[in-house]
Amino acid sequence: MDRRELADFLRSRRERITPADVGLAAGPRRRTPGLRREEVAQLAYISTEYYTRLEQARAPRPSLEVLAQVARALRLSDAERDHLHHLAGTPPGPPPGPSREVRQSIVDLLHRLPQAAAIVISAAHEVIAWNDLAAALMEDFSALSRRDRNLVRRAFLGPHPKSGRLYGVSDGAEFAISSVQHLRAASARYPGDAELTGLVAELLDGSEEFAALWAAHDVTASPTLCKTFHHPVVGAVVVNCDVLDIADRDQRVVIYTAAPGSPSEEALRLLSVVGTQRLDVPG
């Protein structure tokens, strides 16, 4: 355990986080750059005295649980989390759970694709970023809770539990199979993530279809190159489906585009104007 390096590293990570980043008020008399030690301790569910000793290079080796809690409180990246473990003299285990933090450059990319519907999904199939056209084509994700933004849960346990009814897509059955395969692989990568384990348990309990697919133990999913959305306002929208992997975050960018000059391109152009309004619902 390199106590001095660990102390300096923790201090540098603490000082880069603003109170607003974690939902705290800055207050009128804040002199400390970033968070205070007691605020980090509170976020990590450890005592202020113990965290202070860590930053003063006087603490004994922290447990794996404490390291995980401190990493979460300081919003460490996977590389920083591994570095923290090495400084503490404890080899890093598997990542605690699927990352939900989307790089700003990826968010900016989504909004630079005005003629494409694009979303970012986590390893657990949660929609964690989207552009306006994706919200118009699929659903206004900003109006949903985190729970309802999980596509696997929506496919098997949503308002239309049959997989073919997920946003009216033509490849509902194929999506059901591939989503279960992705979820099983993610469960192996994040064995200690309670949220992911709970999602699987909920799906096994609530869907016989999911349980049957889960029992197959398949982890290889075939890519979907084209699909059709049946939208309540503009009708059928045929799109190409391209997936870009964000390897360091274990996330995927899914981009839907229509063939140039096609009726579907016109439909997407109309949706970009209409947005998430429902023209089929009388005012």
TrEMBL record:
**What SUPFAM superfamilies does the annotation carry?**
lambda repressor-like DNA-binding domains
What Gene Ontology terms describe what this protein does at the molecular function level?
DNA binding
Query: Where on the tree of life does the source sit, at the highest rank?
Result: Bacteria
Q: Which InterPro entries match?
A: Cro/C1-type_HTH, Lambda_DNA-bd_dom_sf, MLTR_LBD
The residues covered by the HTH cro/C1-type domain are: 34-81
Pfam families listed in its UniProt record: HTH_31 (PF13560), MLTR_LBD (PF17765)
What's the protein here called?
XRE family transcriptional regulator
Q: What is the lineage of its organism?
A: Bacteria, Bacillati, Actinomycetota, Actinomycetes, Kitasatosporales
